[in-house]
Write a structure and sequence with these properties.
Blueprint: E1 10-11, H1 25-32, H2 35-49, H3 54-62, E2 66-68, H4 70-74, E3 87-94, E4 114-122, E5 130-133, E6 139-142, E7 145-146, E8 152-153, E9 156-160, H5 163-167, H6 170-181, E10 187-192, H7 193-202, E11 206-210, E12 214-215, E13 222-223, E14 226-230, H8 232-240, H9 250-270, H10 277-290, E15 291-294, H11 300-309, E16 319-322, E17 325-327, E18 335-337, H12 341-350
Parallel strand pairs: 2-15, 3-10, 5-16
Antiparallel strand pairs: 1-11, 3-4, 4-5, 6-9, 7-8, 10-15, 11-14, 12-13, 17-18
Helix pairs in contact: 2-3, 2-10, 2-11, 7-8, 7-10, 8-9
Length: about 375
């Protein structure tokens, strides 16, 4: 995480600076390599053990998941699939103000935004994942897209990345990411704020360590330096904080989001979900209620199969990178992809090759070194 601006904070289970591992990873690695499979197999065990109620439980969870048909929405105007067995997944965290999200401290902005965007690249062999964060304030060229009602939206330049979700929809976000990266997204996953909160509460909270006090009246986060166990509401405040760190831009927040992601996965990894069917169901119910995926993944069976294919990925070795950006020359409150770093980064992911260190350095730091 050395390439992402952070307020000198580290997750209690996060990898040390400049490396892919973390302290204590070795003694936990045997179970950690199967994090996703444990959750999904635990769910399967629950269904089988439930006997007569098994089908009801499965149908209940299966019906929670919402699907988006990307092929229908985007058509053939997409990059070719990888020639290898590698996978690319666009993960969005949405901040809709509707429904349960209205009760959260998400501000007074109308509609919804894609508050968090991660391109997850899992190379051939499924041993190590790379997560590339796209800053929400990045100015991009939005391609021509088709909305859910069938109407066409023309291409537009200098559009703020996080506005695309509310203006045109999730399929257009996928198409935009594919256009700027040249990488076909094999899958799409979205989780909304309220569901994120419930997921954290379902696992009993997430522990993080901050190197200095963080006070942000906008997000509501108020933490002193040290180690804290965050509940669902506090976790939302943590990943949404921007005014209490760096220069108050989105760039500092990305460091917190990536830190929290590692801590969340580490927390799940430590829990004996196979030994607690009740907790497994509670977590699965919270997650699936908040989950929207591409239509190919919009079922428990498909998610389980995808999880099994990823069982060799150890979250503790995940590399987290921010898309290299520079401050926009016209509007310093916005950023644009920094070249040639951004192109070099996407090229490395397309080729399943090692990412050069130079492609991880961002001219815009968000006020952090």
């Amino acid at each position: 995480m050395s390439h992402v601006p952070t307020p000198q904070t580290t997750a209690s289970e996060a990898p040390p600076k400049g490396g892919g591992g973390r302290r204590g990873a070795k003694r936990e690695r045997t179970g950690g390599r199967r994090t996703g499979r444990k959750i999904l197999l635990g769910l399967t065990v629950l269904v089988l053990a439930a006997g007569g109620t098994g089908y009801w439980l499965y149908s209940d969870l299966d019906g929670n998941i919402k699907g988006v048909d990307l092929d229908k929405a985007i058509g053939d105007d997409r990059p070719a699939k990888l020639p290898t067995s590698g996978q690319n997944v666009l993960v969005l965290g949405s901040d809709s103000r509707a429904g349960a999200n209205a009760a959260l401290k998400t501000g007074n902005v109308s509609g919804a935004r894609s508050d968090t965007a991660l391109v997850m690249h899992i190379p051939e062999g499924r041993q190590k994942a790379v997560a590339v964060s796209i800053p929400r304030d990045t100015l991009v060229t939005r391609p021509e897209c088709t909305k859910a009602d069938g109407s066409k939206v023309p291409s537009a330049k200098r559009v703020m990345f996080n506005s695309i979700y509310s203006q045109v929809g999730s399929a257009c976000v996928v198409k935009t990411v594919e256009k700027i990266s040249g990488i076909r997204m094999d899958h799409y996953m979205e989780i909304d704020f309220a569901g994120f909160k419930d997921l954290v509460d379902a696992i009993g909270g997430v522990t993080v360590t901050v190197g200095k006090d963080i006070h942000d009246s906008s997000s509501g986060l108020d933490l002193t330096a040290g180690t804290h166990q965050l509940n669902g509401t506090q976790s939302l405040e943590f990943v949404r904080t921007r005014h209490g760190i760096g220069d108050g831009s989105d760039l500092g927040r990305i460091g917190l989001q990536q830190q929290f992601m590692i801590a969340l996965l580490s927390e799940i990894k430590k829990q004996d979900l196979l030994g607690s069917p009740t907790k497994t169901y509670k977590i699965a119910d919270s997650l699936t209620q908040a989950l929207t995926t591409d239509s190919d993944l919009a079922s428990l069976t498909a998610l389980a199969e995808f999880g099994r294919s990823m069982n060799g990925v150890d979250p503790s070795t995940m590399e987290t990178i921010m898309l290299p950006v520079a401050y926009d020359k016209v509007d310093p409150n916005r950023v644009v992809a920094a070249e040639p770093q951004a192109s070099t980064l996407w090229k490395a992911l397309r080729a399943d090759s090692v990412i050069p260190e130079s492609a991880k350095k961002s001219p815009a730091t968000g006020g952090s070194s």
